[in-house]
Specification:
The chain is mostly helical and 95 residues long. The chain has one domain. The protein is built from 4 helices and 2 strands, in the order βαβααα. It has a two-stranded parallel sheet. Strand 1, helix 1 and strand 2 form a beta-alpha-beta unit. The longest helix has 18 residues. It is globular.
């Protein structure tokens, strides 16, 4: 598994996908992907597969950096990652 790449499919789904989408199996699956930053489960199956194929065609260090930063943005926006207290001096005083 890699950090960025197509989202892995369950085995049953992977065996049932149309042949034109099997190309996505050539590269390692990833923890995050274009699919994840474009809406994830809100996308249709076709949009998901086409996003993976698009990533394979356009794969570059710049696209990977974009996906990483956009993934962080999505996680912050959803409240999965919080910066509360990170930049404040939170020294507790004991009396």
């Amino acid at each position: 598994m890699s950090f960025i790449g197509p989202r892995p499919l369950p085995i049953a789904e992977a065996q049932a996908i149309p042949q034109k989408y099997k190309k996505r199996e050539v590269i390692l699956p990833g923890i995050t992907s274009i699919w994840a930053i474009r809406g994830g489960h809100a996308l249709t199956f076709k949009e998901w597969m086409e996003s993976d194929l698009e990533y394979m065609q356009k794969k570059s260090i710049f696209l990977n950096i974009y996906i990483i930063f956009h993934t962080l943005f999505v996680l912050f926006k959803a409240g999965v990652i919080k910066l509360t207290g990170l930049f404040r001096n939170e020294v507790s005083k004991k009396e």
